[in-house]
Every structure is written in C-alpha cells, then in structure tokens.
Amino acid sequence: MNALEIAQKYYAAFNRQDWQGMLELVHPDIQHEPNEGEARHGKAAFTEFLKMMDTSYEEVLSEMVFFTEPSGKRISVEFVVNGIYKKGDDGFPEARGQRYVLPAAAFLEVTDGKISRVTTYYNLTNWISLVS
What is the C-alpha to C-alpha distance for residues 45 and 65, in angstroms, rounded to an integer? Predict the structure, then answer.
C-alpha cells in the first residue's frame, strides 16, 4: 500500500469511527500536531486523543481531496468536517448537541508504511462561533 492509499484508508476508518483501524495505520512514534495546543508524541498519547474526541465530538468528513508530493511520503487532504458537539471541552462553549460544518485540512507523513505525522488546521474562531 502506498502513502496515498494509507491516508485514504486512515480517513475511511475515521468516518466509520473505527478508532482501532486508525491506530493500526499509525506509526508507534506518531507526532500529532493539533490545530491548537501542544503536540502529542507516540501512539499512547494519540490513543488518548482519539478517546477524548470520541467522547466530545461526532464527526464525519466529506468532500475529501487528497494531494501527494513527488516522493510519495507526504499527503495533504482538504475536507469538510460535519460534526456534532457532544461534550464540552475546557475553555470552549458548553456542548448541547450543536451541529457544525467546518472546512479543514491535514498534512500527513508516512514512514515505514505507517502514518508518522498528522498536522491538522481549521479556523478555531469560526468553529467557536458555530457552536456558540
């Protein structure tokens, strides 16, 4: 499986809420760089992040467009997040089941056939206005 196929499989697992399927595709030393806050390092920290996301959000990605660069090790993907805010996070508005639609993008790197970096970007101010 090439890097593009790995990234596509990763996001297909995300849309199925198949967290184990996602974890099987990530490198043990994954670096997760969220839109805001500290980077997470390692599969254990990434697993905890997925648990928090599952508790607080229900999201499906649509309109996914994947891009690769010549070496085939890096992939970017543009998408729309269609979500429900289920449980509030510290410092954010109270969750009441608000629905949101938010454009976003991510950059991935593949090492040894596994995703070794995920960097995600979206407009946090826009998201806060959508759930407020």
Answer: 27
Q: Which two tokens stand for residue 100?
A: 């949101």
Q: In whole angstroms, give the CA distance from residue 94 to residue 129.
A: 12
> Among candidates 74, 87, 123, 132, which has minimal Cα distance to 102?
123
Number of domains in the chain: 1
- Say which CATH number the domain at 101 has: 3.10.450.50
Calculate the dihedral angle through the C-alpha atoms of 81, 18, 47, 91, rounding to the nearest 10 degrees.
Answer: 30
Give pLDDT tens digits along the chain (132 positions).
999 999 999 999 999 999 999 999 999 999 999 998 899 999 999 999 999 999 999 999 999 999 999 888 999 999 999 999 999 988 899 999 999 999 999 999 999 999 999 999 999 999 999 999
Q: For 125, list phi and psi in degrees, rounded to 5.
A: -60, -40
Instruction: Residue 110: give the domain boundaries.
Output: 3-131
Instruction: Indicate the SS3 state at residue 31.
Output: strand
The answer to pTM > 0.90 is yes
User: What span, in angstroms and rounded, lies between the C-alpha atoms of 11 and 22?
Assistant: 8
